[in-house]
Amino acid sequence: MKFKWLIMTLAIAFLISFPPVASAHSNNSEGFSKIDVEGQKINYNLQLDFIELSHAVGFKIDEQNVENLEELNNIITQNKLPLQEYISTHISVYADSIPVESTINQTSVLKIKERAFADITLSYSVNKALESLIVRYNVFFEDSDPSHANMAKVHIGEKQQEFIFTYEVRELNIGEMSFFTSAKQFLLLGLKHIFTGYDHILFVISLLIGAMTIRHILSLVTAFTIAHSITLALATLEIVQLPGKLIESAIALSIIYIALKNIFQPESNHAPWIAFAFGLIHGFGFAGILAELHLGATHLATSLLFFNVGIELGQVLIVSLIFPTLIFINKRLSYKWFLPSVSTAVLILGCVWFFQRAF
Predict the structure, then answer these.
(1) 188 occurs within a structural domain
(2) Which N-terminal stretch is annotated as signal sequence (predicted)?
(3) Which of 77, 106, 248, 275 is 20 to 30 A removed from 212 (C-alpha atoms)?
């Protein structure tokens, strides 16, 4: 009996430990870079999570009230000098191996995926047309968020290149990144996205709770994978675009539905069509990062493929860890208490996410 209550307590504590935030992807801050080299000028459009930027630079803001973009615009304008200093010391640009200084031309605040982002336009002047460009990026990594990732798109002449700045990879050298380096970066980005996408993980776990055979597991995972791969591609290719608030709210509703089904129909296994239907919604959620990057046609297929492979590898790892655990619990204990207890915790968290995202 003591063992039963210990397992139940640990399971519920694990589930409610997921951050109940408006977006389940917001624990690891994101950034976007667009670098254009035009003759003797380098234009750099930098977009950074505003709350994370406030931590790094020292803006004083009310983190619970970041809906007033006009107020945030005033804050970033008033802090232009410390912002310039921060960028100058955390982003280094070398034109033909010669360091060049940045100038902030314009700042504003905009919404990306329902979050406030600082939109900063930088310029760098050089003496001649460039043959090589090196960017060393160290924003947030050491001072506020080691898990930060910045998706960069670079245009230099006729060349376009996509790159991801991470804690482990902080330097971009135009012309030196191989196909395998690019593929590895997007694969790791997919892995990171699934492991920090707590809502996606919770949905998959809830599906697995009702499945006790490998064949059933494979049918659910396959249906979910096919569905989210379809909408991931459609959203990244900008064929189908849906509001981020709608998608995030629908993902929360998918968790609520599965939790309710586990509570009131515990003997009814989830059908693959349910996994497929909700997988279509989750695919739009997966596409958020790639859609914002606006990948060029040259590297789009590769980036999309390996990002999706990363998601699938992460999903396989999650299933491989969770399924044996469920089998162990089923053999040692009765599902009569375990399923409703865990599903109730999932239901509560799904409701919290839904109300935070929808209203």
Answers:
(1) no
(2) 1-24
(3) 248
